[in-house]
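If you are new to this repository, start here. Below is one unmodified record pulled from the training split, so you can see the exact layout before writing a loader.
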Amino acid sequence: MSSWFYLIYFSFRRQLRPRRLAVAFLLFILLIVVVAVMGAERSLSVRRFIRAIIEPQFCRFFLPVIALTFGTAVLGDEREDKTLVYLSTRPLPRWSLFLAKVLGSVPLVLGIALGTLLGICATATLAGGLPLPLLKAAGIFAPTVIFGVLAYLVFFSWLGVAFRNSTLIGVAYVFLVEFFIGSVPGVLKQVSISFYIRSMLYDAAGELGVAPREGRGIFQLELIEGSDAALVLAATAAGFLALGMYWFSRREYRDLT
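And here is the target side for that same chain:
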């Protein structure tokens, strides 16, 4: 067990690479600038803040990109450093190696996501006059962020196990499924993780009197209950975690030169 816990710590420390942290920092600064500019142009109401910033820019762009950046690196670092075979020969069950690698990434990704949420809420309050207390805003949106980040992170970690070029596949997934299919009318959008994140978001925002934009006909956005969306996101994370552990324990890898 001590070796397994050390692997979790080692995985966390290994994720602290300057390139990934730089990506997270640049996206954080970009969101802060966007929020400040929108607040300077016109005061931010709660409805405008959620519809124009939290939903499209933070939940549908920032969260999947950050999870992609760190999720595909769960095993991507081992492939890049030619240590994947060495890792798989350790005297620990193969499935526990993948679990430790994922658990080592969770605190960092959650910390970045929640820290960015606090940052944009604080910026909206200071620069845009958002009439919503900072701690209340964070408490309303935090469950959505936690469930969404975990689902994205585990999914992209599984991609890293299943495919060598997982980053390219992950980028294609984000733009084709999360952005495109997640916006099309009908039930097809329910295959995207962002649909359930939006369901949780607007269910939580209901206490603030904020509802999603109304569409017409087939373009009407029919979300599900927040508790059901949370259950789907939790099941998605658990399912892909189990699939990743099974996949890693059964597949043979080679460190290509």
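Two things worth knowing about this chain: The CA atoms of residues 36 and 123 lie 6 Å apart. The chain is about 75% helix and 0% strand.
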